[in-house]
């Protein structure tokens, strides 16, 4: 595989062969493997660095409903739209019910960040903005099949969430179970979403070319997630914070 695609020489003559490649992509390229996550979950970051991660990740989390609304517009099939729209409700919430964005703001507030500043997204890294917007554009411009396939990182999310919950609660005295509620909720939401998306691509990717496009869409999405952590590492571990980006008060 290359940084862009599965490359040449991989035979995708069945849905099962495609799924095997998808799982290999997750095992080798999912952002759980990034050095920044190892620092985060191992208690090696200070509070300011954890704040920077939560602030930047908010932009991704708050954009997911926009991405999912974009995916819904790609389908004339009503039942696909019905299935997909609960993802928007999961993140946006509904009248009288808390969604994922509110739970993420509970995390940032618990870390001592100002909510108005978080929601303004004025302090996020340029790479965060570019990567997240590239994801929205991908779901708008590529085929509906590829748009759904790009969400398949959710296949690998539950293990990451479990590691994050246990690691952060163990190592940081400024973290408590209440502010980690976003991740505990995703332990049930992500498998449901991933199951639908995997079934969809296995059913609708009928040719080797379509199966290759599905795999490449997942590679693209792993790159979207990985580059955000590259930027965080460069800015807040190596100390190269871009002009105008969030500067932690806590050393």
UniProtKB/TrEMBL annotation:
It holds the Pfam family TENA_THI-4. It catalyses: 6-(2-amino-2-carboxyethyl)-7,8-dioxo-1,2,3,4,7,8-hexahydroquinoline-2,4-dicarboxylate + 3 O2 = pyrroloquinoline quinone + 2 H2O2 + 2 H2O + H(+). SUPFAM superfamilies: Heme oxygenase-like. It comes from the Bacteria. The keyword Oxidoreductase applies. InterPro entries: Haem_Oase-like_multi-hlx (IPR016084), PqqC (IPR011845), PqqC-like (IPR039068), Thiaminase-2/PQQC (IPR004305). Keywords: Oxidoreductase, PQQ biosynthesis. Residues 22-230 form the Thiaminase-2/PQQC domain. Its EC number is 1.3.3.11. Pathway: Cofactor biosynthesis; pyrroloquinoline quinone biosynthesis. PANTHER family: 4-AMINOBENZOATE SYNTHASE (PTHR40279:SF3), PQQC-LIKE PROTEIN (PTHR40279). Belongs to the PqqC family. NCBIfam families: PQQ_syn_pqqC (TIGR02111). Ring cyclization and eight-electron oxidation of 3a-(2-amino-2-carboxyethyl)-4,5-dioxo-4,5,6,7,8,9-hexahydroquinoline-7,9-dicarboxylic-acid to PQQ. This is Pyrroloquinoline-quinone synthase. The gene is pqqC.
